[in-house]
Amino acid sequence: MKFQRLINQHTNQITLVTAILIGVGLLGKVVNSDMIYTVSFIAASIISAIPIILRAVSALRFKTISIELLVSIAVIGAFIIGEYNESAIVTFLFLFGTFLEDKTLAKTRHSIKNLTEMAPTTAMVVGDDGGTEETDVDFVDVDDVVLVKAGGQIPVDGEIVDGSGHINEASITGESKLVTKGSGDQVFSGTILDNGTVKVRATKVGDDTTFGKIVELVEDAQDTKSPAEKFIDKFATYYTPAVLVIALVVGLITKDFRLAITVLVLGCPGALVIGAPVSNVAGIGNGAKNGVLIKGGEVMNTFANVDTLVFDKTGTLTEGKTAVTQFKDYSKDQLGLQIAAAVEKQSDHPLAQAVVTFSTNHHLFSDDVEVTDTDTVKGRGLKATAAGKRTFIGNLKMMNDEKISLTTQQHEDLEDIQAEGSSTVIVAFDGQVQAIIGISDVIRRGVKESLATLKSLGIKKTVMLTGDNLQTANAVAGQIGIDEVHAELLPEQKVEYVKQFQQEGHKVAFVGDGINDSPSLVTADIGIAMGSGTDVAVETSDVVLMSSGFNELIHAYGLSKKTVMNTKENIFIAIGTVAALLIGLILGFIYMASGMFVHEASILVVIFNAMRLINYRPKMPKLDPDQLSVGEYDLSLKQ
């Protein structure tokens, strides 16, 4: 056992020595020294055969007939019949091929190495006396407070209790842009504080952090086999012994021992065995590097065949936050918005806060507007005296109650805004309507273009399932190009629709926020969670889009298709190579050493082909400048 471990540790050195001995042997041939030629190739054969034979024996202990066994028998056979040059070259090529495989495979797993290296190792724990002590991150407990300075790594998942700064969350979301965070905001282990100083109360530590789960998830995913890999494993179980039998039969029939051992060399299924897993590893590694977590080769294979995307609305197609999306001003100098914001400041209602935020963002909020006599009218809105004017802010019912009439144009504007699914707030003072504000859940930027791109990649149908009202759902769907809408649904009703699509023969992926949509995520063929590392998102879904972006959805779908295609290419290359070698052998063009060279070359070809996936990036859509966005309503303020 110790001897085998020693040999395994020095296999690269053995490969180098073998190459040198082969070089010396060839030099002996040039100077017509048969002794140098023969001794060098004999030594090269023996030295290089040792690690191969040891691996073959180890495999036999587990009742596995490995590629190493085929090569070992072939080399020993060549050595017996005095073809020392053949045996030396075959063993060298096999060892050198293994060396190159290890190097290239290590590159495909580079994303895992990067993730592991990004894991924080120490933390500055704040004591009861306010002092700090540096400790190993494994010794930090939940509810401990840690200090993070500019340029430092946040060692825990937690909540900022003091300070603020800009944080690079690329290790979690795949997005390198800085995120501004302050007291009360959540932060993640492994992210970097670009500037500022913060104190963070730990809510999750060690392997329970989002970063820890990501590393574990990607490691498990790269070890999870795709259907192609499972088939190849089963195929190789029978194929390798079959090669031994075929070689034996060839030897008995032809009485040509050299031909029999050549069949063993050419029949090695190396490229076939390695082709699928290397594609799987490279594809999943690419996803992890770009904020897309795909849970294994089987998920990759299923996702590549998805033809129907089903979306939740709130938090998925929309931002999940209420904001002003339409504004019609009929007052002078935007006085309607200023007074509305001053009055709404008195309320905690989400619609009221949206108005305040909108006016603040457009530098129209003023603390100088005096507000008195505020009165909330249930189901109607607010009454108040603002800037000395009796002001009414609410719905059409309130305007009717107060005998305030809308002009024809205002009626049309109101209906247009409501037709887009927005809630409306009417602002009136001086007996006239001064402004109409449309408030709704903001559609994510780029959704419309992203859906079009997904269809170009192979998606046949897009569906929205939402608990919101039908008018709002239809308005959102119309703006972004959703094919089918079902509204006012409970979570269990969403599940029924997912099952219905599956029964119709569709491969369904459900895209949700990973919390209230968990039943649908589990029911669909592929569950895709939009969410920056929430527990439910990571545990329930098959694919996690860490930054909740539609670019990541495009990347995940395109990557799945590309990986499955890459796997098929590798299988074709492997089978084609074996077929070509056997044909070459029959026609007399291929011999043992040349066959082994082609065999090892085919292994490298499939590895390099898979490595193309490492840098795969789908073409992202260009945003439509006319797409609705809160930030694009500056012009409406100038009406």
TrEMBL record:
This is Cd(2+)-exporting ATPase. SUPFAM superfamilies: Calcium ATPase, transduction domain A, Calcium ATPase, transmembrane domain M, HAD-like. Belongs to the cation transport ATPase (P-type) (TC 3.A.3) family. Type IB subfamily. It catalyses: Cd(2+)(in) + ATP + H2O = Cd(2+)(out) + ADP + phosphate + H(+). Gene3D superfamilies: Calcium-transporting ATPase, cytoplasmic domain N, Calcium-transporting ATPase, cytoplasmic transduction domain A, HAD superfamily/HAD-like. Keywords: ATP-binding, Cadmium, Cell membrane, Ion transport, Membrane, Metal-binding, Nucleotide-binding, Translocase, Transmembrane, Transmembrane helix, Transport. One of its GO terms (cellular component) is plasma membrane. The chain crosses the membrane at residues 12-30, 36-57, 235-253, 259-279, 571-591, 597-614. It is found in: Cell membrane. It is a multi-pass membrane protein. Residues 117-219 form the P-type ATPase A domain. One of its GO terms (molecular function) is ATP hydrolysis activity. The gene is zntA_1. InterPro entries: ATPase_P-typ_cyto_dom_N, ATPase_P-typ_P_site, ATPase_P-typ_TM_dom_sf, ATPase_P-typ_transduc_dom_A_sf, ATPase_P-type_domA, Cation_Transport_ATPase_IB, HAD-like_sf, HAD_sf. Its EC number is 7.2.2.21. It is an enzyme of class 7 (translocase). It comes from the Bacteria. Pfam families: E1-E2_ATPase, Hydrolase.
